[in-house]
Amino acid sequence: MAFFEGKSGALVSLQDMRPSSPFFKQGTSVRIIGKLHEYSSETGLATVIDGNDILKVSTEHLKDLKFQVGSVYQFIGELLIRTDNEGVLQAHVGRNVDGIDLNLYHQSLLLLKQFQANHLNNSAT
Amino acid sequence: MQQNKNPFPISLHNTHVKLLAFDLLTLTPPISPNHSFTRNSIPITRAETVGTITLRDHKPFKFLRFAIDDGTGCIPCILWLNHMTSPHLARRRSPQDLCLLADAAARSAEVVKVGNVARVRGRVTEYKGGVQITVTDVISERDPNVEVLHWVECVNLARNCYNLVNVSSSSGSGSGSGSVVPKLN
To answer: What is the CATH number of the domain that holds B121?
Structure first.
């Protein structure tokens, strides 16, 4: 059963990656989406942005992905919180999602979370 | 939650029900090996999901296990690749059928790569006490909006269809017994 014990990457926005967020915890599995702002092939560190929010992503495990500044990427991975309290996503899955409708994405995310919360509340009662 | 208000008989039996992972993974286990998983007492025999492939374990000519993450959970999937070596299947299918099934499974296996987004359909089965999908087909999805559209479709179907199915009409057998229906495969 160990093979299937992989945690799902919780759907979060870059806003949820601020230190004040409940998702900002060591090892949290998350799925984020953002525009590539910077990429260093030497360090494998990518910086993605969404509005005013920014997150560093370690891409050392993503061998086949090509990085292009300005393109939109989705990453799934675990959050590593460094000693300076900066979060770096250790991505194990990534893909280019140029063409995604970000308005639809964010609205659907809200709908999905609301549905999930209602469903779980109903199951509990 | 709205339930049992739909006057029209709808059956989910043998329908590829589109469920989000968290919903699929919390289906009620079958009461015996001859019964199906249920959702709100409605038998669910088949499912369809869309998500990112995050794990992969390939045993050539035996099986390909993988996990598909739709953002609400990780669904274990198994794609059998033993059509040409299984005595069980050899007794039940013609060699021509087995060749076609083996080819289809091999084509599906090619799509299963970590990081790919795929649409997976199959039977809802039990493995070590949990839900898994025994895969019948896998389709690679390239549209970046496809996962979002799947979320919306799942929420819409749950609210306007699956939550409204009458237990008594869910078997599709016409018996209207209202009891849990034995699965056919």
So the answer is: 2.40.50.140
A contact residues 39-68, partner B, Cβ 8 Å cutoff: 62, 64-65
Q: Check CB contact under 8 Å for B145 and A6.
A: no
CA distances from B30 to A37, A75, B17, B86 (A): 50, 36, 17, 26
**Range of the structural domain that residue B90 is part of:** 12-144
Number of structural domains (chain B) is 1
Is B161 inside a domain boundary? no
In a domain, B61, yes or no: yes
Identify the band that residue A4 occupies on the pLDDT scale cut at 50, 70 and 90.
low
Residue type, A104: L
Using the Cβ of A97 and the Cβ atoms of chain B, whether some distance falls under 8 Å is answered with: yes
Domains and CATH numbers, chain A: 10-100 (2.40.50.140)
Residue type, B128: K
**Residue B67: its chain A contacts at CB < 8 A?**
3-4, 6
What pLDDT, in 10s, does the model give residues B146-167?
A: 999 999 999 999 999 888 876 6
